[in-house]
Each structure stands twice: as structure tokens, then as C-alpha cells.
Design brief:
The chain has 290 residues and is of the alpha+beta class. The protein has two domains: 12-214, no CATH class; 219-288, no CATH class. The chain has helices at 2-52, 64-69, 72-99, 103-133, 138-161, 173-179, 183-216; strands spanning 221-226, 235-236, 243-253, 257-263, 273-279, 285-288. Strands 1, 2, 3, 4, 5 and 6 form a six-stranded antiparallel sheet that branches. The longest helix has 51 residues, at 2-52. It starts with a helix and ends with a strand.
């Protein structure tokens, strides 16, 4: 009787265990991965933005939600890549499945596999070469995206054909076994390449946003008042005896510092600026012009 009751209890507990496993696998795990990736890419974007103005990334003092929010573009691209990767996976899987009955078609797909492998090698070489020539160019990012897409297609096609490779009479069957040792190895390399690509895109976007902010003069203009000269060009008002710093554009701020810049009129280029990091404790009043 006791044995039956314990068996019933174990069966009753199985649905709960399965529910927990499904939640961990389908909800918490993807959320944790995307959150970690979003924080990494958001911090990369913020660091590139700050460095464009000459500030060290260590001066970034943002909350986790702010860091995640700054990576919304990269996270959107990551979701798009996952969706396209899933579609490529399903399409190539169905293509191999429908061709499995005809060994001639499998031989054709094997040739396609080797073509993708060659393009992956050539694309990787071009990826590395262009990286050193056009580090933050959009052309570099587009080339890298095409390489990653080809690499993933080669990876998925190899995974689907590996169980059926012995059925194919082809002179390059042995070569297939050599260049495709394991799906997980190739998939891991492709994933790392994708993360690296997203990282470079975040850097490119951070630098681009900083240049656009300076060129378009869209950042708010502030006037700082203090009891001592904060900057060399601050002027003391005779009536209030306070020092006034004008024509400053606010880049960012946190609880400790204000990050501002002033246009450098001594150099006749639109992106020539002087940047300053000013401690809040030295500022009495911050006046916003717009």
C-alpha cells in the first residue's frame, strides 16, 4: 500500500517538475541570455559614445535598465538574426529531408555544402582583412553579416547531411568528414562571430550617434553658475559675484558629474570641440536653455 502511494505521489509531482523545466528552458534561460547580451552590448555602445568625447568608460554611471535600453537596436538585430537563423535551419532541414529519397539530390546538396564551406573560408579572410581596413565602416558590417549567414547555412546543412553521408557515393565524402567534425564546434564559432559582429556594430553606432549629436547641435545647451571658475572661459558677474559658464552643450550627467562640451572656434571644422567633466559639488545652478 505504501509503495502504491509513493508511486502516485511521484506521478503527481511529475507535471510540476515538467512545468518548472519548461519555464527554465523556454522563459528564464532565453531571458537571461538576452539580458546578459543586452547589458554587454549596451555597455559597449555607452563606452564608444563616451570615448568619442574623450571620457573614460569607467565614468559611466548608469543603472542596469538604462544600459539595457541603450542596446535596443542591437537586441532587435539579435532577435532578427535568431529568427532568420531559425528559418534557415527549417528550410535547409526540409530540403535535405525531401532529397533523402534521391541520392543524386543529396550529392548535389553535398556540392552546395562544399561551396558554402569555400565561401565561408574566403569570407572569413575578407572579414579579417576588411576589419583592419574599414574598422567602423558600414560596409565592413554588411560583409561580416553575409559571412555569418553563409557560415550558419554551411553549419546547418552539414548537420543535416552528416547522418546520411554514408549513403552518398561521392568522391568527397571523406573530405566532408574532415571539414565538418562536429556541428556544435562550427555552431559555437558562428555564434561567437555573431556576438563579435554585434559588438562592432554597437561601437560603430556609439561613435556615429556621438558625431551626429555634435554635428546637428541637438544636445541641450546649459549655463553653469558657481562660486569659483570651473572652466577657463567662465566670466564673473559683478552683481552676484558668481562665475557663469555659457555656450555649453550637455552630453550626459549622473549624480556625481556633468559631461559637457564647447565648440572649438579656433579650428574651422564642424566636429572640433572641447569636452569637460565637471563635479556637481562645484556647481551651484544648472540653467537649461532648451
Amino acid at each position: 500500500m505504501s509503495t502504491e502511494s509513493s508511486t502516485n505521489e511521484s506521478k503527481a509531482g511529475q507535471p510540476n517538475n515538467k512545468l518548472v523545466e519548461d519555464l527554465l528552458r523556454n522563459l528564464f534561460a532565453p531571458t537571461a541570455v538576452l539580458s546578459g547580451l543586452g547589458y554587454f552590448l549596451g555597455w559597449t555602445f555607452s563606452a564608444a559614445y563616451y570615448l568619442s568625447f574623450g571620457f573614460l568608460p569607467s565614468s559611466i554611471s548608469k543603472s542596469v535598465p538604462e544600459i539595457l535600453a541603450s542596446a535596443w537596436v542591437e537586441l532587435g538585430i539579435a532577435v532578427l538574426i535568431l529568427t532568420l537563423g531559425f528559418l534557415i535551419d527549417r528550410w535547409l532541414s526540409s530540403l535535405v529531408f525531401t532529397s533523402a529519397s534521391k541520392k543524386k539530390n543529396l550529392s548535389i546538396l553535398l556540392n552546395v555544402f562544399f561551396g558554402l564551406f569555400i565561401f565561408t573560408l574566403l569570407g572569413s579572410i575578407a572579414f579579417i582583412y576588411v576589419f583592419f581596413v574599414l574598422r567602423l565602416s558600414l560596409r565592413y558590417l554588411l560583409i561580416a553579416s553575409v559571412v555569418v549567414a553563409i557560415s550558419w547555412s554551411y553549419c546547418v546543412l552539414g548537420r543535416e547531411m552528416k547522418p546520411r553521408i554514408k549513403e552518398i557515393k561521392h568522391r568527397l565524402v571523406g573530405t566532408f568528414e574532415f571539414i565538418f567534425p562536429n556541428f556544435y564546434v562550427v555552431a559555437t564559432l558562428t555564434i561567437f562571430a555573431t556576438i563579435f559582429l554585434l559588438n562592432r556594430f554597437a561601437i560603430w553606432r556609439g561613435v556615429s550617434v556621438a558625431n551626429i549629436d555634435v554635428a546637428s547641435h541637438t544636445l541641450p545647451v546649459v549655463i553653469l553658475y558657481s562660486s569659483e571658475p570651473l572652466l577657463p572661459f567662465c566670466i564673473q558677474e559683478t552683481s552676484t559675484k558668481q562665475y557663469v559658464c555659457k555656450d555649453l552643450f550637455l552630453i550626459d550627467s549622473n549624480e556625481n558629474f556633468l559631461f559637457v562640451y564647447q565648440k572649438d572656434n579656433s579650428v574651422n571644422t564642424p566636429l572640433s570641440i572641447k569636452t569637460f567633466m565637471i563635479a556637481r559639488e562645484n556647481i551651484k545652478v544648472v540653467e537649461h536653455n532648451r
